[in-house]
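User: Can you fold this complex?
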Amino acid sequence: MLQTVLAITRKDLKILWKDPRGLGSLFLMPIMFIVVMTMALGRLFGPEKPGVPNVVQHNVPAWALFGLFFISQQIASSLLEEKKLGTFRRLQVAPISRTALLLGKLVPFFLVNLAQVATMFAVGVLLLPMLGAPRLAIGSHPFALLAITVAASLSASGLGLLMAALAKTAEQIGGLGSMLVVTMAALGGVMVPRIAMPRSMQTVGLLTPHAWALTAYQDVLVRGAGLATVLPAIAALLGFASLFFAVALVRFRWD
Amino acid sequence: MPPLLQARELVKRYTKGGAAAVSGISFQVERGEVFGLLGPNGAGKTTTISMLTALLVPTSGTATLAGFDVVRQPREVKKRIGLVPQELALYPTLSARDNLRFFGRLNGLSGRKMAEAVDRNLARVGLSDRGDDAIATFSGGMKRRVNIAAGLLHEPEILFLDEPTVGVDPQSRNFILDGIEALSRDGLTVIFSTHYMEEAERICRRIAVVDEGRVLALDTPAELVHSLGDGTVSVSGAVALEEPLLAALRRLPEVKSAEPREGGVLIAARRPIRILPAVIELFQSSGLPITSLEYAKPTLESVFLQLTGKRLRN
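Assistant: Here's the predicted assembly.
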């Protein structure tokens, strides 16, 4: 089981590494958004107020989540590509379990998610101060940040598997998938902070995992919260993950 | 010794109550045999192979491989089989070696055993010097060869080859067929599906002629061909044949069969040339014009035509 998961993980990371488009959308795009939006919106956020995120405390976690959820498309494309190539059939004729196969298809992207978030936070700590923006302070609860990241990544994985289960073509994943991911990000407060939205929009935003994850990140970064405080948000993210996985596994076609 | 593979009345319907892709296929394969599934595209060959390799659960019927049931003991079955699917099931951006290592690992290989298996199989398919190149840089024939190597890595007891020569240049095709013959000499059991009869005739010890999900005939290539006598005569006329004329044709000496075909008849006979005058005579006395008359030496193609009324390749 472990050997199988590791083998598929290594193989998929290698394939991802050889595809500059994938890495571009997962790493370069969110970094670019963090830098540009931080530079552009500095004045809009105005002077620091206690308990309210500054321009860096908004943009770093927000665009990190934007990038993190782009993994859903990568997961779906990767599964569809296996089916198109015929390798999915070959994977299934090997003496391995379906659970190991699916885990193998998800773990590499989970690892990429961790690397993405670490990179985005490093941009906030190291790069942004060089550009004249405030330095991002990680705060005293890094494990809370990690827990939020893991939970958010699980819901992104579930969403990826769901897309793979529902989509019939790569075009659908590229088109409808992008639309879905960008819309969820917008509603979840990535582009515009949810506190700037009308009350009704804020409520609608709660239907996205982005909103829960972003609020939780900011609870830790801005308001000094620990793991206990963000547990409800983590539970909500795991709820999204369970829902996505449940529907995906029912609808997923193995042939 | 019991047969290595035994399929009994396999049926597969993809939708409940829908048309059957496979409707009751049975056969046995002995250890060391090269067994052919010969039929046109859509005959149910791939579906049959999918059931035998525990990829698809049959709607009804059973199959055992080395005594293990494909539905109840899929893991045991999968350990013993290699599959070379019809698609080039390889990762184009990875090297041949990386592809083989990956599939080897999934089949439980590691360390020294893995390194040896990869080298041995790259050599087997004549690609030792290209192992580190990406699959995307290979020709169609080379990809097919890596595809075969991937099915052989873990030294299976039985190798399933699903149309392994589709879209391959003649040189690679020969290489592949020679390779299968060599594997068979080494004692590997091979199940080979194809719609190229000359391939089936060349490498298979026994052939199941398959069409519309059924086995129409199963025998050695020589016996299958022999069933047609020494050849066939096909007569085309402008109008459909009436039953009395068919009956009269069948009564001719040494005629094995006379089957109506669109606008004509296909006659198999021990000495077909000898019956030609009598055939022409019968047509003339019935007042039916003959537009063409064709004599064919018996081949698997004519066996197939005789069994199904269809040509293998259209």
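Chain A has ten helices and no strands. The longest helix of chain A spans residues 98-130.
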